[in-house]
């Protein structure tokens, strides 16, 4: 299966996928990363792809007249690599109807909180501020909401009294990277069905 991964930052989730595929081999893992896309230049996530010899593209909102034009351009850029599955690994933009028309049902996101709790761009900070005793991460299909699509898998992480946002986020990311690698591999190898809010992996 062909994966396109979208990033906006350090790309450690992308790196976890790259390392797993390198270690187990494309055949055994069931997927290969054919391109990495971003919404901005100069991020470590793109450097990780370049070091792995993987084609990259950047699609910036400010390069387009309207948000919808950006959304359509992003869909085109992703489509050019004919992906079977698109993975948002720390991609910090909300896609629109054109992107979802083309990739809905095969567009997966990872979020650093236990959805439906704490959706949005500050899930770790919000869980900490709320005083949650456990939080975690969620891998889900992207729908037309923000972090509201059908949940595929979740991992639980305890919150410690001494945690600040970055310490807690680092601990969440350790679980998140393993969860994403495991879920993407299973989706690619086994195939899946989405039945309402349920995801059935064969
Ligand atoms: C991940 O925790 C992701 O869930 C969140 O931002 C982080 C990205 O980390 N949206 P990285 O870029 O994969 O290191």
Task: Offer a few descriptive terms.
alpha/beta, seven-stranded mixed sheet, two-stranded antiparallel sheet, globular
Approximate helicity band: 25-40%
State the assembly state of the protein chains: single chain
Number of contiguous helices: 7
Strands, count:
9
Strand order of the largest sheet: 3-2-1-4-5-6-7
The fraction of residues in strands falls at: 15-25%
Separation of the first and last Cα atoms: 16 Å
Function: Catalyzes the transfer of a formyl group from 10-formyltetrahydrofolate to 5-phospho-ribosyl-glycinamide (GAR), producing 5-phospho-ribosyl-N-formylglycinamide (FGAR) and tetrahydrofolate.
GO molecular function, one term: phosphoribosylglycinamide formyltransferase activity
Catalytic activity: N(1)-(5-phospho-beta-D-ribosyl)glycinamide + (6R)-10-formyltetrahydrofolate = N(2)-formyl-N(1)-(5-phospho-beta-D-ribosyl)glycinamide + (6S)-5,6,7,8-tetrahydrofolate + H(+)
Pathway: Purine metabolism; IMP biosynthesis via de novo pathway; N(2)-formyl-N(1)-(5-phospho-D-ribosyl)glycinamide from N(1)-(5-phospho-D-ribosyl)glycinamide (10-formyl THF route): step 1/1
Question: How would you describe the overall organization of this protein?
Answer:
With 202 residues, the protein is α/β, with parallel strands linked by helices. Helix content is 39%, strand content 24%. It contains 7 helices and 9 strands; from the N terminus they run βααβαβαβαβαββαββ. The chain has helices at 12-24, 26-29, 44-51, 67-79, 97-103, 123-130, 165-190; strands at 2-7, 32-38, 56-58, 85-88, 107-111, 134-141, 151-158, 192-195, 198-201. The strands form 2 sheets. The chain has a 7-stranded mixed beta sheet with strand order 3-2-1-4-5-6-7. A hairpin with a 2-residue loop joins β8 and β9. α1 crosses α7 and α4 (67-79) packs parallel to α5 (97-103). It is globular and about 45 Å long. The mean pLDDT is 98.
């Amino acid at each position: 299966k062909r994966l396109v991964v979208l990033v906006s930052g350090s790309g450690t989730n992308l790196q976890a996928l790259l390392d797993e595929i390198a270690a187990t081999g494309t055949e055994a893992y069931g997927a290969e990363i054919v391109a990495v896309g971003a919404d901005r230049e100069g991020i470590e996530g793109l450097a990780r792809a370049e070091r792995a010899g993987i084609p990259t593209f950047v699609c910036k909102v400010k390069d387009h007249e309207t948000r919808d034009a950006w959304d359509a351009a992003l869909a085109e850029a992703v489509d050019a690599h004919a992906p079977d599955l698109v993975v948002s690994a720390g991609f910090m933009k909300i896609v629109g109807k054109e992107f979802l028309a083309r990739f809905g049902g095969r567009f997966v996101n990872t979020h650093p909180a236990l959805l439906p709790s704490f959706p949005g761009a500050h899930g770790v900070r919000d869980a900490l501020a709320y005083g949650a005793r456990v939080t975690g991460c969620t891998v889900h299909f992207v729908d037309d909401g923000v972090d509201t699509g059908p949940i595929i898998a979740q991992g639980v992480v305890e919150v410690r009294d001494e945690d600040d946002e970055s310490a807690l986020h680092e601990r969440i990311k350790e679980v998140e990277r393993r969860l994403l690698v495991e879920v993407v591999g299973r989706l690619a190898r086994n195939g899946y069905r989405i039945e309402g809010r349920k995801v059935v992996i064969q």
